[in-house]
């Protein structure tokens, strides 16, 4: 059974296929609610997989409107370019499908979705992005004939089929994102539950004009990571534990996609004859400034 968006009404999948060719659509909204969403559900995509009006962050598409895919379909609750499966572009019933093909393709390319669909309520077209990044049209049919193409459509567009196709692409690996990692997160939180309490600290950010940042802003200020340097006894380990704990909570609450992993590396370790500290700092334009700060300061620099 499937559910209409915004409604508690359930519809048997068989009823959807029986009635697919009847009726007409007044506008894009009715195409979305009466055709696209039910079709995605009978193909095996759940509510958590389907994201309507998904923002696409580049400057193409219709002027005066924000760039957004009418529907972006993912594998699970993680909605990002690693888990994207299908993009759907919906046109007005009076528009030709060809008018939206380039836009749908650009959205799918940006999202790294291997399949995109175009429909205006009268026709439906399915395109697949090959490993060469060229699009191939795999199906074009009228909605009235969609029931007759049901078997082919399910083999082509069911969630299981698209996930299998993704597994053949080098740029896609969905198994990690679909795994339930909550036992790991809970175990890590229990492990550090008795760690010493920490207070907010102020860190120096070196540069042409050195600035200061509270430790509570590190995860936001340095989303790609940072190197923190300070003399022994100034609380680097305690601060690292606090940041790790914050990262676990953010991921558990779906506010941050990255899985935090704590790895202990001794300060005295060497990498090809270089101290590990300098190995991590290599390539940072602020390495010299970071190393010159007073031993009483705790400072940080963004990872290159």
Keywords:
304 residues, alpha+beta, tt1808, chain A, 2 domains, six-stranded mixed sheet, two-stranded antiparallel sheet, 32% helix, elongated, disordered N terminus
Descriptive notes:
- The protein has 304 residues and is an alpha+beta fold.
- It folds into two domains: 177 residues, tt1808, chain A; 121 residues, no CATH class.
- The chain is 32% helix and 21% strand.
- The protein contains eleven helices and 14 strands.
- The strands form five sheets. Strands 3-4-5-6-7-8 form a six-stranded mixed β-sheet, with helices on both faces.
- Strand 1 and strand 2 form a beta hairpin.
- Helix 4 crosses helix 5 and helix 7 runs antiparallel to helix 9.
- It is elongated.
- The protein starts with a strand and ends with a strand.
- 25% of the residues are buried.
CA-based gyration radius: 25 Å
Count of alpha/pi helices = 11
Which range best describes the helical content: under 10%, 10-25%, 25-40%, 40-55%, 55-70% or over 70%? 25-40%
CATH level 1 class label of the largest domain:
Alpha Beta
* CA-based shape: elongated
Secondary structure tally: strands: 14
Integer tally of domains: 2
Largest sheet, in brief, is: 6 strands, mixed
Order of helices and strands: EEHHEEEHEEEHHHHEEHEHEEHHE
What structural class do helix, strand and pairing data support? alpha+beta
CATH topology of the largest domain: tt1808, chain A
Write down the overall mean pLDDT. 78
Strand order, main sheet: write it out.
3-4-5-6-7-8
